Amino acid sequence: MMKLIFEITKEDRRSVRLPMSTIPSFNIPKEYARGQRPHLPEVSKIDLVRHYTALSLRTHGVDNGFYPLGSCTMKYNPKVNEKTASLVGFTNIHPLQSAQETQGALELMYDLKTMLCEITGMYDMTMQPAAGAHGEWTGLMMMKKYHEMRGDTQKRVILVPDSAHGTNPASAHVAGFDVKSIPSAADGGVDLEALRDAVGDDTAGLMLTNPNTLGIFESRIVEMAKIVHEAGGLLYYDGANLNAIMGQVRPGDMGFDVIHLNLHKTFSTPHGGGGPGSGPVGCAKRLAQFLPTPNVEKKGDTYFLQHDNEDSIGSVKSFYGHFLTLVRAYTYILSLGADGLSDASRIAVLNANYMMARLKDTYTVPFNGLCMHEFVMTAQKLKEETGISAMDVAKALLDEGIHPPTVYFPLIVKEAMMVEPTETESIETLDHACDVLLSIARIAKEDPQQLHDAPVTTVISRLDEVEAARNPILRYSISL
Amino acid sequence: MTGYIPHTNEDIQKMLDVIGVDDIDALFLNLPDAVKQKGRLNIPEGRSEIEVLDRLNELADKNTVYKTIFRGAGAYNHFIPSVVSSLASRSEFLTAYTPYQPEISQGILQAMFEYQTMICELTGLEVSNASVYDGANAAAEAAVMCMTRKRSDIAISDAVNPQIIAVLKSWSKASGAQIRIVPQVDYKTDMDAIAGIMGDDCAALIMQSPNYYGVVEDMQQASDITHDLGGYFVASVNPTSLMLFQAPGEYGADIAVGEGQPLGNPLAFGGPYLGFMAATEKMMRKLPGRIVGQSHDKEGRRGYVLTLQAREQHIRRERASSNVCSNQAHAALTATIYMAAMGKRGLYDVAKRCYDNAHYLKEQLCKIDGVSCNYHPFFHEFMTSGVDGKKLNQKLSDQGILGPFEVESSLLWCTTELNNKDDIDKVVSIAREVMT
Q1: Distance (Å, rounded) from C-alpha A187 to C-alpha A164?
Q2: Which residues 221-240 in chain B show a CB within 8 A of chain A?
Q3: In chain A, what residues touch B80 (CB-CB under 8 Å)?
Q4: Computed over its alpha carbons, how large is the radius of gyration of chain B?
Q5: Selection from B288, B163, B60 nearest residue A128 by Cα
Q6: Is A291 on the interface with B (CB under 8 A)?
Q7: Which of B124, B271, B331 shows the shortest C-beta gap to A321?
Q8: Confidence at B315, pLDDT banded by 50, 70, 90
């Protein structure tokens, strides 16, 4: 059993010392002093190193193997990004140094926002939001302010397709909107008739990801934009799937008014085990006045932070965003350039279609036709025939060193498996994954129990998640 | 094909054949012609790694890096042991995503479980989540945890970091809740004003200690007043200070939040940092964001999973009370390794050194004619007035020192364990020069 850091702790063992100081000791006022000191670990350097090295070896990242987790764009995270993000000129600057002393940082942020605006067809952008969901909320608050300033206080409803990412309705609710779900049509796109029926005086906007979560491009987007705009609503673009369309089509040209990006997806910054990400929000000119403050601007050859903007929705985060994540994304865009970004999207789409073509006769694909950068297949038939579910398939993949696709999402497809290979994977990697998936389907028929038992090669087998939620143990109890 | 794409022309042709299309353009036929990108993006051509490094070094060199820093105000310059970044930057940690598949994510899950335990220990509270975006968003999420239909307004002290108040105000525009400001007197929250402002219909009081001006507040008294009024008490705290000063759990806080940056994360021009959140067991199911719990597999082996996810957006969707779907996992991992490296004694030494340095600096500065100080208890930050900040900071900067932060016409000073007596004496002598 892997021990916790607290279980290798020994009292009075220490590994870090401060230099001697000639400054006298000052007393801490008794009435404010802490009673019992917190029980933090006490371990030696070598034990510390071994402990966290062991934990890293029990963690699967993109660097360990194929990671086709749908809607998460687990592409290669370039090492040069890490090198630039660790330059002392970036890591050791205080956020409250003057603009004059931080021109390099401000120039980087300004350049990055200019390039991201070009890629997406937006007028201006904020780098503040910490993640995609945070960006959604920020964009929605801007939309809210837009309607308020126009006196359209009845615009309280955000329309969300039933295929949307779960964060879309959640962000709309948290931003104080009512949420109305729009059903999908038989081809997997938004049902135009249903959209027409749903819009009205109360429509604040429509949130859409395009391509949608089924990996299908919403080809009726121009009509959809028209319907929403004619009702006085705004179009919000969830940038989770931008990796499909860079250099091919821009959200701004499709009619989107507000967008968020996920720099940790499309722009190769590491996911870090679940953050920090970065979710810049871009907008059309008519919404620019509502962007969060401060925003980075340029005057002549000088960059500065604009704090004054009375129409702004205010700050959504301390300081200016995840600066070191911005450094990585900037490094990536400089490395790829215009053609490289376009190639990335084209090959991402090629890779997804290739895997789909190889798998669609075995795992059903609910909507026919080509896909974009990802596709959804289902284990429903497999489950009916053999009892093997999408979860069993996922667990069997773990035994082969492959991270499973996103399972049970989107909710509109039963036993869904959402596969996003990304452009950085070779044909050999894709072929191997396809071979494994096809062989799992064979085993399902011959020896289903083997798959119910999976995974068997991992450090632990399936965990009792029900028990974990019913009787939560959320910390180690330090017994003294 | 460019940099990170492994495909040969032959690969591409083979794949197109399997798909059954002639070329890659055929995969994009669903895109309406009217909106399709016509030319190339107006972005420079891709560059080699050598050129990219040149450009990034050029930008980094345009920033002024100070060796000696006397500025805090929400971002603190602490020593980070080499072992911290060395371990945290292991690429398994860096390139993994949210641990949806616990069997191949036990490492990051266990690290988060250790993080939660350490945050509980620091704050003296019973449960912690796996972190949120930053200290300001942690405070806003805590406010949401306290709101009920009957009590939706939030009181916050004017002595809280203005960035936290600003973010809270942005949040409040979503729900329509009012933010009521409790005034400060001489950099300290006015205790006598709390009851009148909160009344019996306020959901919570948010106080910060040490507050924005460095003052250690009377949290026990504020907590008691708030509870008497039927509200929740939310403490925003500096994690390092908790080695010396009363923990939120000791003065009865319902929720503790704070900026976790001082725990091993660099200044980095403001981010990424992490917000920590801990609460009483009673509030456990309201805690937003990722939470890791302990469980076991069929063989009875101990393991860790993401838990209490029913609260989250994948299930509640349009009724969710929070839309947070990631944490600051890597920043939290960094904080975990930092706390383990410093250890119980090491982190205490850091806190005490910060404290002693700041008290020595203040003592010396206050001896200078014309410099005035307050005499509230403080940790490692304090205010002075009477000095021309612009002039002082220019002189300090000329000596390679980042001076105090100007707050209106006064100065907010900060010391950490990275300042030594020579630095402090030098600053004092420069301040003396400016005053004469």
Answers
A1: 15
A2: none
A3: none
A4: 25
A5: B163
A6: no
A7: B271
A8: low
Residue-wise pLDDT for A305-327, tens only, equals 999 999 999 999 999 999 999 99
The pLDDT of residue B317 is above 80:
no
Domains of chain A: 80-335 (3.40.640.10), 338-466 (3.90.1150.10)
Residue B311 has pLDDT above 60, yes or no: no
Residue whose token pair is 């999408």: A390
Interface confidence, given as ipTM, is 0.97
Q: Are strands A203-208 and A234-238 parallel, antiparallel or unpaired?
A: parallel
- Quote the CA–CA distance of B436 and B428 in Å, as a whole number: 13
- CB contacts of B92 in chain A (<8 Å) are 56-57, 59-61, 63-64
> Which domains can be identified in chain B, with CATH numbers?
9-51 (no CATH), 68-78+344-435 (3.90.1150.10), 82-337 (3.40.640.10)
Q: Are the Cβ atoms of B330 and A427 closer than 8 angstroms?
A: no
Spatial CB neighbours of B115, under 8 Å, sequence gap ≥ 6: B128, B130, B131, B332, B333, B335, B336
User: Of B19, B50, B63, B224, which to mutate for an interface test with A (greatest number of A Cβ within 10 Å)?
Assistant: B63
Residues of chain A with pLDDT under 50: none
Q: What's the confidence (pLDDT) of residue A368?
A: 83
Asked whether the bond before B248 is cis by omega within 30 degrees of 0, the reply is no
Q: In what order do the strands lie in the sheet with A178-182?
A: A124-126, A281-283, A258-260, A234-238, A203-208, A157-161, A178-182
Q: What is the pLDDT of residues B359-384, one digit of tens each?
A: 999 999 999 999 999 999 999 999 99
